[in-house]
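Final paragraph of the annual report: two paired records, presented back to back.
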Amino acid sequence: MHSNKIIKALMRGGIITTLALLLMIISAYAVEAIAMGQKGIMPANPNPDVMYSDSWFIYTMEPGESREDSAMILNATDESASFKIYAVDATTTSDGSFAPLMQDEKRKDVGSWVELPQETIEVPANTEMEVPFKITIPENDVDVGEHIGAIVIQEILEKDVVTGGARISIITRVGVRMYVTIPGEIRKELNITGFRGNLLSRLKYMQEVVPVDRILDLLGLKPAVQYFISFENTGNVHLDLSGKVKIQNIFGRTIKSIEDVNFGIIMPDKPTSNFVNWTDPPVFGRFKATAEVTYGDGEVATATAVIWVIPYRLLILIALIIVIFIIIRLLFQLIVAKEKSKMGIHTVIEGDTIESIAEQYGLRWKYLARVNKLKAPYQIKVGQEILVPKENLWLSFAKSFFSKKKNIIILVAVIVVIGGAIGYYYWNIQHQEDIRVEEAAEADQQRQQDLEVVLGERTAADQERKDDLEIIKEALERYYEAEGQYPVVEGRSKTTDEESVYTELLEKGHLEEVPLDPKHPNYYYGYESAEDGQSFELTSILEDGSDTEGLKIDNFVFYRVSSAEPNEESEE
């Protein structure tokens, strides 16, 4: 087959261009992601009546039934490639992503039902090769419902790679999903087993952080909330979960709605969890979040979580300042009582005021009033005795206090204890943060291994989206040449609408067929136009959050194509 045809088949067939798992042979190990390029596997005989059968093997089979099918191995490079080919069971990761198991893991389900005629295959350059296989369902001990697995090809490389001074073996896997449903009572049931919110720093979600942001964060005035939600599939088929999270304030008014959340796939008896970020909550208040999760044939499961957003650090700082102020006032009065015997006495005569007495002795009048516990309006009487400090009371107290070695030892001990407590507090915070970073790194490493095939699948789906938008763009340009303007719409026209711009392009012969998102109808392609019909913008959601061609808005990454400049990042 011509290489261009193969590349198009790769993109349209949902081929999984994957991460590479790099296993360290000398000293420790490292994992490094590499793209497999234009090599892949796809169903050879898709059923047009079965959605997604051009991307996945999808069967409904009775116990004891056998069926023969074929996988298409594609090599669109200029060099021949050798592959291992094998079937494995699959699972879902903790966040609901599909993940085929490794080759050496025991096969108990779909992976053990598939029989391949060969273990390795050589595919010449710019060639597609069909590999037959047979799947047989056991007659006994097979549960009604859905079972998942994958057929995987693993490229055989002749050489190891040296990176960072160490030699590593490259194991590159590419897989295609297999769903097998055993007829019977199909149950689509979901439980939300947990829903809670955690307070975080908003800085981790900010692209630019200035010093004032760090100060506000230190005071707890830059909060963010991360909602964790856990699921349990109590049915017997997989469920695709999507939905939204609505957040209300203490008065019941909705102040935030996080729409179109993709919670992933959940298999029976495989608990999963996911999270939703609220990056701009108010700095104070009680908020109730309601998660509405759609699954099955439109059923909805709900759960609520209440969280208080309170700037604890600022409140603690204010409380600390108040306590220190009170302590200073009490300590001052104690010093006054202790130093009273050393003070002079002024007897008030006719015409004296607290201001004149203070001026007479070279003191501040407010200081003199505080020593004598005088309060506004600071009235004094003839004959009243006013205490007059001969020197600053704090200085006098310090001289007296530090003249005794015992007091110095006690003060040093107190400072050491307080300093040690503060130091331990901050050390413990940093220690816990280091533990979280280490756990996150380990989890990320495990996730990279779990998602070997998944990211490649997302990458291929995103490439199909980009290709589809270019096809639509070309159709729109042909429309413009014929009509003198682009189609004018109010709001956004979607491929999920019954009547849309895309059907108009199809009816007028500018499109051969309406391209649909690989996850239609959960995702769609959007079209918006200027009022005068002289410009347009096409959009789609990308699943690969690291795609540099995408524009990240909240929790989503958007790809844009416009009549002017592709992917022009205009402000929403």
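The closing record of the year follows.
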Amino acid sequence: MRVEFYDTTLRDGAQSEDIAFSLTDKLRITERLDEFGIHYIEGGWPGSNPKDLQYFKEVKKLKLKNARIVAFSSTIKANARPGTDPVMKALLDAGTDCVAIVGKAWDLHVRDALRVSLEANLKMIADTIGHLKKLGKMVFFDAEHFYDGYKRNPGYARAVLGAASGAGADVLVLCDTNGGSMPFEVFDITRDVGKAAKARLGIHTHNDTELAVANTLMAVRAGCTQVQGTVNGYGERCGNANLCSIIPNVILKMGHTGIEREKIVRLRELSLFVDEMANFIPDKHRPYVGESAFAHKGGIHVSAIRKNPETYEHIRPDLVGNSQRVLISDLSGEASIRYKAKEFNIDIEKDPDLAKEIISRIKEMEMRGYQFEGAEGSLELLIKKKLGIHRSYFELIGFRIIVEKKERSHPVTEATILVRVGDTVEHTAALGKGPVNALDNALRKALQTFYPELKTMDLVDYKVRVLSTREGTGAPTRVLIESSDGKHTWGTVGVSENIIEASWRALVDSIDYKLLIEEEKK
């Protein structure tokens, strides 16, 4: 069965708390969705705000290859005429060939929200859709609260679909608007409705019970051929159905067609891009596209996937643009270290005791608070130091940090550092926004004379974790640093009761790793 994918990230997704897409954001997301192969992109509600109306003007300038743009609106008001209703005028001003119309399918909403008669609601739906079909539009009818309405008054919910299909609606989209339906209810109701439906069925679910994806898949199994959702499941309250889970489930698991498998390999890339546009930190635990989706930590797991990845992976990660990862921790076994050594192009197979020694060292360090899951730069350096194949690029002689605070002024921080590079001693100082920033600036300043490639390196993230609250301000602290040179990104870690010392250790590893990268290029 061919399934059409309908994205509503730009409307429903934008209703998510903390999301505010700019016009440029919406246009860039549109281009990415089109490249990925999405069939329909709901751009917004042109009657609701000036930005959405402007979007429909600007989107016409894009050269889309796959997607059709959809404008969203409600039905006309009771006793209104489609030709003069301002809602219809705004919708038509958007100039799209496809439109989505939302109408009430639950008699409770008709009485309590719209406060019109049940018959008037049916007329509003029929008149709106009929008018749009006369103008040559493709019309998707969103039957809002359909499943709740069907459970309370199935006869009226069916009458709503009848009014829409009788007026010419191309797709009847069954909505679980409150997100409270169970998968077995969605399947049974969708199947029953489908037996008498005179138009294709679609599905639109919300995630208030964390069942939006499951409900969508059950609706597809019951016969729905259009699936609505958002990238990363963004949406009001708990979100909408997550297309990043639905698409691979429908195509790779259920065997339906709709988006080419060669395009699904860009799924993780799409997910990360929309996160970036939303200014959200990617959720590493998302199925399929998350950084942890194919990450293995337990020693037994790693031992098995080295022999056959299928033992602990339900699909090949590359099918969705992801990759297998092995995490090193106190739960790791020898197989984990061998896997990571191979990943780092380090040969430890010649010495059978070497992996045991490295694991022992890692477990000892993790007992003191180290964590290597987000610090693979430090891990690679640790292994190479254990093997004696890593040289020291510089040696610390000493540093001093002074923080001066005067009344009614911001604190001033200065770091002075003394390092030895070969036979040369370098002494320098630098200011910073705080102790760690000043120390970082001073260290870079001292080393850039010898290693100019450090100018391309930036510290992009800095995390501090207090490991125990019992010792108060004397508690051990873990510092995780993420660095980048524009081509590579790496994490390093340091632990100490002194936050400056912990930061220093992470900084040194970060610079060491950058110099290691540059050395290996030569």
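The mean pLDDT is 90. This concludes the annual technical report; the extension proposal builds directly on these records.
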